[in-house]
Write a structure and sequence with these properties.
Membrane-bound Lytic Murein Transglycosylase D, Chain A, Aminopeptidase, 3 domains, two-stranded antiparallel sheet
Length: about 350
Amino acid sequence: MKKIYLDAGHGGADAGAVGANGLYEKNLVLKIQQYLISYLNSTYSDFTIKTTRTTDTFLSLSQRASQANSWGADAFMSIHVNAGGGTGYEDYVYRSASNASKTFQSIVHGQVQPTLLSYNHPNRGRKSANYAVLRLTNMPAVLTEIAFIDNRTDAALLQNEAFLKSMGESYAKGIAVYLNLPRRAVPNPNPTPTPNPSPSEPGTKTYTIKQGDTLYSIAQKYNITVQALQEANTGLSDPLTLQVGKTIVIPSGTSPNPSPTPPAEQYPLPNGILKQGDSGEAVKQLQRALNAVNFKVGSVDGIYGVQTKDAVRRFQLVYLPYDVDGIYGPQTKNKLAAVLKAKS
């Protein structure tokens, strides 16, 4: 199982490069990352992904590299948007890069070239620099600069979803070729059809899953809960295996909770990182909050054991499907706080 670490640059108070028409690097790189992940998930197998961020949060450069190193990633890609008056695409490795990093760069660059040609986007070539995330990471690492946000022609491309999608998929292909990921089996061209819900069934409508969808994004779109969505559709227990093109049932209204959820402020969330083997009041706070949003941990005993890890993992599968490790940290805390607030 290959480990892929994706680093969407900047975030939080650090907007990165800023262009006209409300273009922010920190937002664009998350879009590109999502297209990259969606393509990997739908096309390849035998890999797992960890990201620096999937929301508007900030980690220092050393934290990004440290996370990738401690996880033991097999490949690291940092995704960026350029600025400074130029035009075109370029990618980087560290000045004293290993041969493995140079090979990784060459493969990614080769996969990007067809997209550059199809959009008449200049190719600025393969480069090297003393960037911290390249210098501090232990595995083959590449940093991409998709276009110049302060160039009018490049900015127009950055507002073109088809271009962002094509580049994200090109990055994904580069990673897959470098890691020699096996392709998923081609679906049966004549599968046994799954009957759609009867139109006459009261209170039901349907939705066809698209690339990039998660249970959370679909639930938000229709103002329902993830739990209601899962209850209405057998086989949606694992959000990482959503089948593009599959039709699912959208239940009407929000599923009522078995009992009212007390206000979010009654569930203070601990800071820092908690993992299996930890214990104490902070773990109890986490257990109470997970129980409150129906990710049951059993008894609130203050022990971060197998059940608590499993509950955290199930929560991450639904709300943070590309950072599933069963470890409670800042991203899980922020998402859990948002879910508690929405339910209060």
